[in-house]
User: What shape does this take?
Amino acid sequence: MDIPILYEDEHVFVINKPPGIVVNRAESVKEETVQDWAAPKVLRDGFVPSTDDEKVFVERAGIVHRIDKETSGCLIIAKTVTAFTDIQRQFKERIVKKTYLAIVHGHLVPESGEIRAPVGRLPWNRERFGILPGGKDAVTKYTVMRTGNSHKTDISLVALYPETGRTHQIRVHVKYINHPIIGDWQYAGRKTARADRVWAPRVMLHAWKVAFMHPANHTELAIEAPVPDDMKSII
Assistant: This one.
């Protein structure tokens, strides 16, 4: 598996996850995952975890967070238990700052704003999430970078800044304001997504930038993943 490494030292590395690759192993996943790729690079032969932190570190092969299979871009992987627990803490305390790029349906107005709506798992479809009164608080800020038209469809290139980290948060939030992501088979609607996939091969979402405090020297580490070719060809 060929996965580009954007940054690496003895404590952590950040990869540019290609679209179409699952991050974590699961019984339902038959193909190779990022976790399979990372394990031999992170875990020492013969290491037997004893503490809870060590067990989680080994179980996840140092992968601190997740992005969806079809989403490309920055993914942080810790090389040590200390780095793993420190970066996890930064996520919980909202120290980590993430910026995503998405190509969405329509011309988004206003050109900058905030989406604040609770996100939760849908009771009638456990694989999907939505805006629910009993959901978890979720906030996404955005800035429109460009608007245009592709394949007779009005589109916007949008930078998104999630201030919380709910599952499918960005996809659900832009759907909530009636600008679903191009190619989003779960949230754009079946007919719309099918038409999108004629010219857009996946969910057009990219984890563009990530910034966090280095777990050893405590200086800010800011990483950017190049925009993938399939998104460039549209924008």
In short: The two ends are 28 Å apart (CA to CA).
